[in-house]
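Hi team,

Filling in the usual template for the complex we talked about on Friday. All components are listed, including any nucleic acid strands or ligand strings, so the model treats them as one assembly.

SUBMITTER: L.P.
PURPOSE: interface mapping
COMPONENTS: two
RESIDUES: 358
SEQUENCES:
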Amino acid sequence: MTTPQMVMFETEFKQLNYILEKLLREANAKVIFLVDKNGQLISGVGETERFDTTSLASLTAGNIAATGGLAKLIGEKEFSILFHEGEKDNLHISIVAGRVILVVLFDSRSSLGLVRLRVKKASEELSEIFENLARRAEEKEKSGESDFPFAEITDDDIDNLFS
Amino acid sequence: MSFINYASREINCKIVYYGPGLCGKTTNLHFIYSKTAPEAKGKMISLATETERTLFFDFLPLALGEIKGFKTRFHLYTVPGQVFYDASRKLILKGVDGVVFVADSQEERMDANIESLDNLEYNLREQGYDLKKLPFVVQYNKRDLPSLVSIDEMRRELNPSGVPEFEACATTGEGVFETLKAVAKLILIDLKKGK
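RESULT (copied from the run log):
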């Protein structure tokens, strides 16, 4: 398979959220999401309950995929930052560690310059965590150790999902 | 690739409905959406043209329930079937966990079915996937229409390796959930193996 399976552990999840919360405050943003490039929401902080986070994640990933396709067509590796300006709210979308997407929603209480600046710093910190995660997943795979929760599911478990 | 979150105890998988233009991929999703309890589904998103042809993708998130304390979520996507949207189709296949191939059972669409299946294999290979190793099911759709191709012939052309297959009529919903269950089951069995 092309990309290794994405696994998130409790420790890293807390670290991620700590960085996201800090970014939320420092960038004066309304909401911040972290989305897997495949469209799965990893985490969100801020006024998340106001948004349909699942749809947002999937559309963001679609958006990044489409602009990535555009980039390749003109000979670029990717466009690492996208900015969407609305009447009230704006979206700043950037790629972190080549694998995850950081979405910052902000309004006139902040500015593009501030968001860009803070995102840059947070991205470095987030990259470190994702590199750690990738290493941890790789080590696990090598050692053949499996505390995988699905290793022991039965056919009945699966059938029950559909009853 | 599925995404396992130990912190929120969730597991997310991606299913893609593939097939030629107008074969009923979006109709499959519409039926699933209409028959799923509100608490188990999210909003269905369709990025379609004014004439309701899929432009980029349809998206439907489903929460099926829990396994071993993990919330199991499936994200259903369709691709645009029309030949010239190939660039978009490739993007949607990224990170796929399971594929449903929806075939149009009408005789005049057999060539389109074969072309689309070839295209699926090609696009998967480009991303480093092998269709033979991926959870994969085939749906023979539109079994209610005249000028049908026999199941034997469709199987010969579209399912030589004998993956699970279903006759369906997506507009009435016949075979739709059977197809979804089959692919979801294959994905979970794959996960069980720790792939």
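MY TAKE: Chain A touches chain B at residues 1-10, 13-14, 36-40, 42, 52, 54-55, 58-59, 62, 65-66, 68-69, 146, 148-153, 157-158, 160-162 (CB under 8 Å). Residues 83 and 92 of chain A are 5 Å apart (CA to CA).

Thanks, L.
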